[in-house]
């Protein structure tokens, strides 16, 4: 009897402990109702609601939900909520593991303290060790001032891990609230930045400091809102009107990326015929090199089902960078955009394309380059702004890339811009050209003016002489087969066959293996 009594007491004690655990878990999940109402009143979701939208239903496993800070002073010892203002864990997106941390603005405004940072450090280390993508849902007020310098050290640990994970696992930052000061550098170190209009902002110094120092008055959105960073600064790769759409697009991006740099991107079944001819391309691209057209329409005709995800859609519009599929295989597309600045390369376009090429190369994504480039943008502002070093970034990125690389010259490919846009001479595996291509040092008009300057000046009819000499230069050096005759392009193809040619080339290159020279790392142009 004494033994039975003891067993009953132990069972009762266990049930009591389990009930206590359930109450604590419920407290963790529920949070403060008034704080939740305040978050919703701002048009924002809670951290857990965001995670539910990001990962597959029922797949989230939380890490350290019962963590609390140990700080004292300034009233902190009386405020020790569970999670310490950040939810961390892992789940799946379309069945693949993804790690996530989400600032909980309801607790300390999502401000980062020592315990808060330790949770983030741990989940980042787990993501790196497991070889799985990391998504950060950012909605925090910066460092927790009451904890002093240990909060700043916490940010240092995040930056160090961002850098260590760079090129190893995909890192995606989703800005869903304010992000000011040093905290903004973590998103800048990641591969992709998403923002939501009106509710998310990023800046190093806020509007009050800007006004105090410069006298300029600006709102938070005017200084660092989603549209500013998507169209002007280039900090944000994507901007959306609401959190639901934003997180759905994060899921779509993840479906196009491998889990880590040792894997290939996930391949899907392709129902779009591989040998589908695109007769529309014959009309989409004018033969006249001076007439603009929308390169996006060309991309839609070539890729599977016309679907692609454009990166930095609103920044540096003279070049298009997109992820798409060809025969179910993910590819990165870099293409000049004749609708904007005639598709020239400038500082911003060079930076945009260079980072995209580096990302593709890091994560085993083949690169398709579509050329229609008249050169680099001339101008004092460009030269003084460092177009030489910025253009060299794109050159360096292509030369350093070891993934399969296929380029297609649609129309113009002039001067240094032709070389930089993955020409055969810098390592493109295969180069094709349409019969409308013009590969040359410069346009015929400019070339004729330089080569035949004296003949034109001495002519009785300079305009007529110039026209004749331009015609002669074109027929001698700029006809569509000049480059093919000299082995600078591998073939001249029917534009309607571009899709099938690219699919065949990439299939052949799928087993490509290339090693870079042994070195600690390169020293890319700054």
TrEMBL record:
Transmembrane segments: none annotated. InterPro entries: AccD/PCCB (IPR051047), AcCoA_carboxyl_beta (IPR034733), ClpP/crotonase-like_dom_sf (IPR029045), COA_CT_C (IPR011763), COA_CT_N (IPR011762). Keywords: Transferase. One of its GO terms (molecular function) is transferase activity. One of its GO terms (cellular component) is acetyl-CoA carboxylase complex. Residues 14-269 form the CoA carboxyltransferase N-terminal domain. Residues 273-522 form the CoA carboxyltransferase C-terminal domain. Gene3D superfamilies: 2-enoyl-CoA Hydratase, Chain A, domain 1. SUPFAM superfamilies: ClpP/crotonase. This is Methylmalonyl-CoA carboxyltransferase. It comes from Streptomyces taklimakanensis.
């Amino acid at each position: 009897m004494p033994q039975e009594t003891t067993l009953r007491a132990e069972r009762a004690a266990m049930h009591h402990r389990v009930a206590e655990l359930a109450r604590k878990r419920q407290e963790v999940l529920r949070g403060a109702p008034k704080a939740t109402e305040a978050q919703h009143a701002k048009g924002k979701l809670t951290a857990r609601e965001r995670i539910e939208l990001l990962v597959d239903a029922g797949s989230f496993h939380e890490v350290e939900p019962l963590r609390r800070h140990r700080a004292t002073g300034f009233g902190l010892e009386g405020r020790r909520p569970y999670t310490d203002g950040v939810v961390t864990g892992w789940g799946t997106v379309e069945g693949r593991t993804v790690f996530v941390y989400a600032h909980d603005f309801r607790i300390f405004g999502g401000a980062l303290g020592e315990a808060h940072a330790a949770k983030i450090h741990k989940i980042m280390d787990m993501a790196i060790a497991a070889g799985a993508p990391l998504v950060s849902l950012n909605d925090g007020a910066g460092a927790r001032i009451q904890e002093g310098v240990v909060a700043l050290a916490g940010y240092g640990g995040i930056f160090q891990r961002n850098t260590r994970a760079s090129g190893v696992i995909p890192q995606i930052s989703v800005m869903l609230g304010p992000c000011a000061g040093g905290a903004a550098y973590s998103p800048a170190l990641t591969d992709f930045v998403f923002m939501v209009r009106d509710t998310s902002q990023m800046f190093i110094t806020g509007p009050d400091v800007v006004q105090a120092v410069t006298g300029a008055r600006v709102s938070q959105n005017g200084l660092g809102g989603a549209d500013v960073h998507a169209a002007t600064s280039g900090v944000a790769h994507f901007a959306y009107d609401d959190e639901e759409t934003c997180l759905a697009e994060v899921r779509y991006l993840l479906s196009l990326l491998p889990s880590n740099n040792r894997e290939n991107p996930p391949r899907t079944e392709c129902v779009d015929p591989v040998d589908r001819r695109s007769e529309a391309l014959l009309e989409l691209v004018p033969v006249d090199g001076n007439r603009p057209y929308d390169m996006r329409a060309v991309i839609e005709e070539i890729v599977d089902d016309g679907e692609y995800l454009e990166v930095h859609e609103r920044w540096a519009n003279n070049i298009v960078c997109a992820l798409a599929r060809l025969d179910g295989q993910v590819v990165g597309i870099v293409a000049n955009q004749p609708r904007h600045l005639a598709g020239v390369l400038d500082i911003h376009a060079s930076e945009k394309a260079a980072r995209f090429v580096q990302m593709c190369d890091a994560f085993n994504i083949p690169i398709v380059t579509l050329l229609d480039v008249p050169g680099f943008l001339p101008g004092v502002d460009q030269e003084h702004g460092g177009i030489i070093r910025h253009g060299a970034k794109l050159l360096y990125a292509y030369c350093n890339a070891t993934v399969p690389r296929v380029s297609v010259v649609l129309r113009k490919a002039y001067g240094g811009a032709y070389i930089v846009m993955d020409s055969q001479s810098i390592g493109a595996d295969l180069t094709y050209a349409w019969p409308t291509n013009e590969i040359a040092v410069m346009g015929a008009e400019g070339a004729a003016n330089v080569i035949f300057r004296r003949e034109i000046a001495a002519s009785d009819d300079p305009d007529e002489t110039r026209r004749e000499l331009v015609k002669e230069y074109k027929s001698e050096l700029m006809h569509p087969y000049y480059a093919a005759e000299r082995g600078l392009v591998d073939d001249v193809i029917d534009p309607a066959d571009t899709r099938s040619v690219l699919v065949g080339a990439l299939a052949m290159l799928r087993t490509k293996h290339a090693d870079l020279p042994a070195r600690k790392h390169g020293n890319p142009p700054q």
